[in-house]
Each structure stands twice: as structure tokens, then as C-alpha cells.
Amino acid sequence: MSDSSLGIxxxxxxxxxxxxLGSIDFGAGFWSMVFAGQKGIKAAxxxxxxxxxxxxxxxxxxxxxxxxxxxxxxxxxxxxxSLLVVPVSLVLLLLALRSTFMVYxxxxxxxxxxxRIVSGITGLLIPGLLITVLPVTLGGFVELRDGHLYVLxxxxxxxxxxxxxxxxxxxxELFLSAVFLADYAREAEDREAYRIYxxxxxxxxxxxxxxGMLAAVAMHPEAQWxxxxxxxxxxxxxxSGISFVVGFSALWWKGxxxxxxxxxxxxxxxxIQYGLASFGYGSAHLPYLIYPHLTVEQGFTNHAMxxxxxxxxxxxxxxxxxxxxxxxxxFLKDKRYLKP
Amino acid sequence: MDxxxxxxxxxxxxxxxxxxxxxxxxxxxxxxxxAEVLFHIxxxxxxxxxxxxxTKGFAILLGVAxxxxxxxxxxxxxxxxxxxxxxxxxxxxxxxxxxxxxxLEALFMSIYVYAADRLxxxxxxxxxxxxxxxxxxxxxxxTDAHAWMNTPRGFTFKDGVIxxxxxWAAVFNPSFYTTAMHVALSGFxxxxxxxxSIAAWKLxxxxxxxxxxxYHRKGLMxxxxxxxxxxxxxxxxxxxxxxxxxxxxxxxxxxxxxxFETQAYAPLSIGGIVxxxxxxxxxxxxxxxxxxxxxxxxxxxxxxxxxEFPRENWPPLFVHTLFNLMVILGSxxxxxxFGALIYWWxxxxxxxxxxxxxxxxxxxxxxIGIETGWIFSCSARQPWTxxxxxxxxxxxxxxxxxxxxxxxxxxxYVLLMCVTILxxxxxxxxNPVSRDxxxxxxxx
Lengths: 340, 444
Ligand code: HDD
Ligand code: HEM
Ligand code: HEM
Known about the structure:
The complex is a heterodimer.
Chain A: H1 3-34, H2 43-72, H3 77-107, H4 112-131, H5 133-137, E1 142-145, E2 148-151, H6 153-157, H7 160-187, H8 191-217, H9 224-232, H10 234-249, H11 263-285, E3 288-290, E4 294-295, H12 296-299, H13 303-333, H14 335-338
Antiparallel strand pairs in A: 1-2, 3-4
Chain B: H1 3-42, H2 45-79, H3 81-90, H4 92-114, H5 121-150, E1 156-158, E2 161-163, H6 167-171, H7 176-203, H8 210-248, H9 250-257, E3 268-270, E4 273-275, E5 280-282, E6 285-287, H10 290-296, H11 319-347, H12 353-360, H13 362-379, E7 384-386, E8 390-391, H14 392-395, H15 402-430, H16 433-443
Antiparallel strand pairs in B: 1-2, 3-6, 4-5, 7-8
Helix pairs in contact in B: 1-2, 1-5, 1-7, 1-13, 1-15, 2-15, 2-16, 4-5, 5-7, 7-8, 7-12, 7-13, 8-9, 8-11, 11-13
Bound molecules: CIS-heme D hydroxychlorin gamma-spirolactone and protoporphyrin IX containing FE (2 copies).
């Protein structure tokens, strides 16, 4: 494998990890808002109990993604910056509001309702905005003027493909977070919260498939190349579909102790489903970062830096893995935390 | 304003905002460690209460430190693509390694806060030490990138093309050690003085309960000791930083001191306004020979003046004032903290009101020192983003609609500042020290 393929593979892994963690994180924030008002139902509690210790860690994955991208693909920056400044700045603004207000809603009981609403709604908007970057990379919405790329904003805002992507992003976020929280509630042995999140997952699951198909169908004429490539890569999407069907059915399997559904199996299979599909999509996207203006190879850094970065990642992963495991045991396994 | 200036304003103000929370994030964990350790040595539950309350304050501040850091991190990539193009090839390592530091801090912070009741006492101390290591390492690593911008090494630059890259030579560039030390020490001192300010303010309250007064006095004493030692160390090390400028960035030192003519036995000017026409500092106090001594430890050291350099490469001249502010505030803080401690040890009496009133100012003063220091360091590097390699205008993005974003972000920072103060105030109002102290007594 060439340096640049390995580089883009690592970036893909980070994008995927952040999409999953981010969806769960933002989704949990949204559900915590939705169920906040209802007395006696602990669905909001479960969401908050997951969020309190984890949101910082999730946020670091976002920073990791940006820093790794700039590290591996520094030459892509001059072209990309003018394209991304506005949408990404808006994401940053919302992200700052959401993180701050979420932390504060746990600190100050006086302002809880207002703070929660802000953190819940921004949690829905951020993934939506982030996913709109995808159609832009596929061609048809950018124009090259003296070495810099610019978005054709009006054209983008009036395109079907944008809204299809948006629907897909939001549905996926809500689905993933609901399945995950169902599993978390199962771990905490909270039947009431489990019932609610399982219901939501069962309802939204098919919607994600539908919006996903829509996003593929509603591609811009100039983006037809990726549809063709995705057809060539059909095997990944087929496997992904199977993984979804089995994972979704796991919500009806008979669990131990009279629970309907085995949410752990559902979560794992659904994450695999997204992994397979996004790998298929990602390999169809190659070699372009932005079709047809920017390829992976054009953006890539030099060999010496690449090797140092790789060593850096290997060492840091080895150092951090034990801490992550301890963290997992304390907040995702320990009954004393889950069931106070 | 053209887009380069807008990019500078947007980035500079975002940094100035982040740095408030980030510096406290570096300083407060040290105070928390000190309190936790003292609790174990002295078995005085007041220190446990301090650690707990400071941790709450710290957790509130992190709610802004992390998103504002995310903002500057991403903005750096978007607003300065030309700069990032070189950074990515030469000095990507500290940015990457910094990610571990963030992970360390975020993981252990959650463990320390949300798993405290399930940890053994020594595990709590280990966790909070890792929080502090993570925070300090974040500061040191980002400062590494900043130091490299001042003294770039580890590559060959010819006709706009980078070659022969040596990533580790870039990491260990000549100004790294002194600069990183300076940033870490000034961060520790700021954390301590922030605590001192609040303790002094509480002690000034009329009719304060004696039990509470005793608690705040212990906090104030601890903060003054740490703050005093750190401010002294900051000043000594700052002297080293200035000598580093003399060797590697003489324009910056000349602008900081408003020196126009190259000379031995150069005088040090404090205050005043640098006047380009008259080639002197107007209205400042001049100490003969002092600058030469500061720059090279001997009075006959030759210090380069601004006229040595082409006019278009001069830094802006207002940086003289920023530099003065930092140094004066640092010197005052040394006097204030040691003055109060000596008074305390000699007289064995509580500090008089006027002293408490000045100590109340120590936290804000320290933060102003941080702000002026950073703005000095970034502005006095102008017109270069990477010293003698890349000009700021070549580093900037070509995006044109930054004006609206600038207004939006300023609005965001004002809003977050107000909400933070409101939440801090309401949290500590609802959970007064007296209640925590009573709870501790019952528990004990
Ligand atoms: C409370 C904060 C504080 C205090 C009291 C001081 N400093 Fe400082 N100084 C900083 C906080 C700071 C800083 C914010 O951390 C800077 C900005 C960039 C950097 O590396 O550190 C800095 C930069 C900085 C620089 C520029 C380095 C560069 O541009 O590369 C010099 C020469 C000094 N300092 C020297 C001093 C001296 C002689 C002091 C004597 C008392 C002093 N500082 C006190
Ligand atoms: C000397 C100045 C700086 C200091 C002392 C400092 C320190 C800190 C600290 C203590 C945090 C909280 C870390 C955590 O809990 O995870 C933080 C967050 C952050 N800082 Fe800064 N920082 C400085 C400048 C910068 C600059 C210039 C950048 C960008 C290039 C930056 C990028 C970030 C990012 C991305 C985060 C968020 C990390 C997260 O998601 O947890 N910082 N910084
Ligand atoms: C943390 C406190 C900091 C503050 C308050 C600060 C402030 C500023 C200001 C005011 C400017 C605009 C300067 C001008 O155009 O006159 C600027 C520029 C800049 N700073 Fe800093 N800075 C800080 C730290 C850093 C660090 C740690 C880095 C390095 C990673 C950094 C990198 C830059 C870059 C790349 C620019 C734009 C290019 C330039 O103007 O040279 N800054 N900063």
C-alpha cells in the first residue's frame, strides 16, 4: 500500500469512529432534552449519565480528526480552506453553545430547561451540517477560481441531494443513539428507559435505510460517477444490508431474564453495518478528496513526516488503551455508576 | 478591513478568549493537587473541601475551555491554510502528540469527578495528577508549535519549496525549552492567584463567620505560597526568554524596548510611547545600561536596534506597551505575594483590609499578564507568521466573508462569558462553603 493510501485509510478510520461516537453523543443530548420534562421516567437520566463523563472524550476525537487530516494532507489546505470556512465555523459556533450549555445544565438547576433546549437542538443541527460536506465533495457544487475552491451556495441550497443527505444524517444519528442508549439502559437494568429507546430504534431503523437510498438516488448529475463506483463496490453495501437486517432483528430476540431484544448484538451489528457501508462509499470516493479538483495524492505530506506521525499514533495508542479500558469499566460497566 | 486583517482579528480574539480558560485549566489542577496532598498530610478536612470546590469551578471552566480550544484548533487550519501547509510538512508532531494530552486530561478528569466515590484515596491523587500532566502537556506542546514559528528549524526552504525535513529537529527548536517553561510557570501562577483573589474577596465580607474565615485564610496562604514561588520563577525564566530574543529574534527585542540605534550600554525604557519620528521612547523612564545587562548579563553587550532592519520588516511599535505591562504586572505580583506572606509570618495577625483589597486584584492582574504576553509574542513577530520564512499575508485564507463570522464569534464569546459568570455565581451561591464545611464535620 502506498503512503497516501495508508494515510487516507487512517483518516477514514477516524472519520468513522467520530461519526459513531458523535452520533451517539449528539443523539443522547437530543433525547435528554426530549424526555427532560417527564417526571418518573428515567430515559433522560440514562442519557445524561452516559453523556456526563464521555462528551469530552468524544470531542477530542473530533479534534483528532482535524489534526490528523492537516497532518497527513497539508497540501489540501489551501484549496479547502475557502470552501470550508463558513460551514465549519457555523458548526464550531453551535458546538461551543452545545458543549457549554450541556455542562452548565448539569451544574445549575436554575437554568436547566433553557440550557437543555439549546444543547438538545444544537445536537440535532450539528450532525446535519456536518453531513452536508459529503455532497459538496462529490462534484457539481464547487467552482475553482485562481487556485481556491468556492461553494455555489444557491445551487447547493436548492438541490435535492442536500436534503436527502440531511435526512439521512439526522435519521442515522437518532437511530444509532437510540440503539446505543437501549443497550446502556439494559446494562443499567432500567426496564422503563429500555422500553422507550427500543421503541424509538424500531421506529427509526427503517427510516435510515429509506433516507440512505434517497441520498444515493438524488445525487447531482455531476456526481453520477460515484453512483457507478458504488455499484462496482456493491459487495460492501450488500454485506452492510445483511448486517442491518440481522442487527435490527436482534431487537426482537429473546434476551436473558425476560428482556425483549438483545441490544448488545444490535449495537454491534449496526455499527458494523455503518462501517461496511462507509468503507464501500469511501473506496468509491477514491482517489478524489474533492471531485474532480483534488486527489488524495496531491494533498499528501512527505515521507519523513508520515513515518514520524505513524510512530506517534502507534505509541499513543499503546499508552492510551489501558486508560480507555479503565474508563470503559468505570462508566459503561460498573453497576455502582449505572444504577445509583 | 481586508480579509487578512479580518482573519487576524478573528483568530486573535478567539485565542485571547480561549487562553483565559486554558490558562486556568493549566493552573487550577496544580492547586487541587496541593490541596489533596495537604489533606493527606495534615488530615485537615478543610483541604478536602477546597479540592472539591476548586474542582467544581474547574469543571465549569472546562465547559468553555474545550469548545473554545476546538474552535481555535479548527480555525488555525481554516484561516491560515498557507501556514498549515508548512506546519503539516514540518511541525505536525506536537499537534498530534497534543491529542494524547487532551485524551489524558479528558479521561482522568471524568474519572476524578464522576468516579471519585469509587476510587481509593491514592487513586484520586493519581487521577488528578494525570489531569494536571495532561493540561500542562497541552500547553507545552502547543507552545512548541508557537516556539517553532519564532525559531523555525528542521527543514530547508528554497524557492518556496520545503525539503530535507527533520521532524524532531523542528520539535526541539532553540526557543522551545525557555518558552515552554515560561508558559507553564505563568499558567501555574495564574491558577494560584485566581484562587487568592477569591479567598481575599471572601475574607473582606463583613461579619464573616470565624469558621469560614479560617477556611479562606488557609486557602489564601496556600495560593500565595504557590503564586509567589511561581511568579518569581516566571520572572527569572522570562529573563532567559528575553535573552533568547536577543540571539534569535533581535527585531522583537528592539521593538519591545523601543530601541532604534544599535549600541552597547543600551538603556532600558519603562513605559512611554515609541515615537518613530523622534527615534526614541517618549515619556518613559530610562534606566541606563540596564537593557544591555538584561540581554547579555554584561553592560557592554551590543543590543541591535530597529534601524538595523529594513523598515518593512519592523514589528508594530505598540508592542512596547504590551511587553511593559507584562513585566510590570509580574513584578508587582511578586511584591504583593511575598509582601503579604512576610507580613503574615512576622506579625502572626490576619492581613489588613487594604492588603486583602490589593490581593483581590492578583488574579485579574495575572490574567492580563498572560493576555499581554501572548499578544506581544504574536504581534511582535509580525510581519512574519513563520519568522523569516512566511509572511502573514501569504499564510492567510482567501475566503472573503469573514466579517460576518467575526461579528458572530465575538457575540458568542460575550454570551459564553456572561453565561459562565452567571452559572459560577449561581452554583457557589446555592452551595455555600458553610454548608460544605458542616457536611465535612458531620462526616468526620
Ligand atoms: C502572568 C503572566 C506573565 C508574567 C508575569 C510574565 N510573563 Fe512573559 N510571557 C507570558 C506570561 C507572563 C506568556 C503569556 O506566557 C508569554 C507569551 C508567549 C510566551 O511564550 O509566553 C510571555 C512571553 C514573554 C516573552 C516573549 C517570548 C517570545 O515572544 O518568544 C518575553 C521576552 C517575556 N515573556 C519575558 C518576561 C519577563 C522578563 C517577565 C518579568 C517579570 C515576564 N515575562 C513576566
Ligand atoms: C498557550 C496557549 C494554550 C494553552 C495554555 C492551552 C491549554 C489548553 C487546555 C488546558 C485545554 C483543555 C484540555 C482538555 O481538557 O482536553 C485546551 C483545549 C484545547 N486547546 Fe488549547 N491551549 C493553548 C492554545 C491553543 C492553541 C493555539 C490551539 C490551536 C491550535 C489550541 C487547541 C486546543 C484544542 C483543540 C482544545 C480542545 C481539546 C478537547 O477537545 O479536549 N489551544 N487548551
Ligand atoms: C494563547 C494565546 C494567544 C493569543 C492571545 C494570540 C494572539 C494572536 C493575535 C492577536 C494575532 C494577530 C497578530 C497580528 O496580526 O498582529 C495572532 C496571530 C497568530 N497566532 Fe497567536 N496568539 C496566541 C497563541 C498562539 C499559539 C500558541 C500559536 C501557535 C500554535 C499561535 C499562532 C498564531 C498564528 C498562526 C497567527 C496568524 C498569523 C500571524 O498573524 O502571524 N498563536 N495571535
